[in-house]
Amino acid sequence: MKGPKITMIGAGSYFFGKCLIHKMATSPVMAGGTLALVDIERRVLKTMMTIAQRVCRQTKCGVKVIGSTDRKKVMGDSDFIVLTFSRRNAYYRGLDTQIAARHGIRMCSSDTIGPGGIFRALREIPVALDITRDARKIAPQAWVINYVNPTATIGKALQNFAPDMRSFALCDGHHEPHNTLYWLQHVGILPATATCVPPEIYNKLDLRIGGVNHCTWMVRFHYDGKDMLPIVRRKLATEVQKEKANPGNKSKPRFNHAFQLQLFDLYGALPTAISHTKEYVPFFQGYGIRPNQPEPIRLFDADVRAKEMAAAWATTEKYATGALSIGHLLKHVGNDHATDIIETMWGQLGKPFYINSPNRGGVTNLPDDAVIELRSDIDMHGPRHQPFGAMPRGILGLQHQVLDAHEMTATAAVTGDRALLRRAMLTDPLCNNIADADACIRELLEAERDVLPSYWYRKR
Length: 460
Hints:
The protein has 460 residues and is of the alpha/beta class. It has a domain at 5-86 and 114-171 and 309-382: LDH C-terminal domain-like (Alpha-Beta Complex), CATH 3.90.1820.10. It is 45% helix and 15% strand. It has 16 helices and 13 strands. The protein has helices at 17-26, 42-59, 89-102, 114-138, 151-161, 178-186, 199-202, 229-243, 256-267, 274-277, 302-321, 326-332, 337-347, 395-415, 418-427, 434-447; strands at residues 5-9, 34-38, 64-68, 80-83, 143-146, 166-169, 205-212, 215-223, 226-227, 270-271, 353-358, 371-379, 382-385. Strands 7, 8, 9, 10, 11, 12 and 13 form a 7-stranded antiparallel β-sheet that branches. A 6-stranded parallel β-sheet has the order 3-2-1-4-5-6, with helices on both faces. It is globular. The relative contact order is 0.15.
């Protein structure tokens, strides 16, 4: 069987484009398939097309490379449509961050929760749904895979407003088998040199990680009947002490171990995406009389992210011009979460992955239609969450709160309902003042007129 046709919307993606090219060129499952690249910037599209063509020629993989600035010209009959688009990512995240901070809300990532997550959803959901409307006509059998943040909110919008298209959402965290391998090495069950999890080890393992994307928790880690979470906590406490000497300056990783330990001790479960989860809770916002320990979360450093993205793009351009060889790309660019999932689905490889899709009983005390991230079995029929059990109390309340905010945000993004947007903002865990929320919404709507749909500005 020849490889699939994969259409990538947003070919110049910061982290995904070269990974997809690598997988298409090196996987026997993908051989003979078609890679359709779409980007609205001609310069970006030309660069990525050149790289893909060079890689495919050198590897003799038989993959056909096509591309266009108009997705409808190349998307027809796709087996997979991967959404990786974003417009001025760092700029708008920075804008969201600074405006929210003026109204008393701090965000260290500003793309998933709080005003940043909500307004990014308002920007991205209409685009995602426009793409699915086109796909419905020319690629109705395709799997639409969302790789754009806030991924769970966009996944919810696809579920509610494009139910006839098959879809799920992804994050690049919890990439299997690397995630499970890491935790087994971390507690000493496997050596640092291990490259895979042997079946006899896996059969003794009970590792349960799940929740809303970027607010996921390790609630159980048993090996051969022994609880490994005490070991995880001891090692984390050691890292907290080391971290004090050099916490770093970047907002997302700064003091992560200290924040992680506090949440671990509070909930009895380990937050596994702490660079995001620390902005899902109000505890590190700087509220209250006594100071946050070790400090309130730092504001997202958009200027640093912009420089990182520019540097990454400069490297990408070198692959197109030949300043860096294709051999260098094949050696230094690897596969990623989405590419491995597509390979598993198409090749019927039977590998499990963490996927954001409707709960359907995976977590027994969350709604069936809640879009949550769990370890899942997957094939061309789609993802099926593995049993997780009940979400512990405390975390459960937070999950419900976030899921409600996601549901309202997704609907507001489609309808332009300002009352629902306001309710979503005040349901979100970070906002604790009605007047601040109202002022923040007004300022963000005015600042982002150039990228938000016109229905937000109709006379009422």
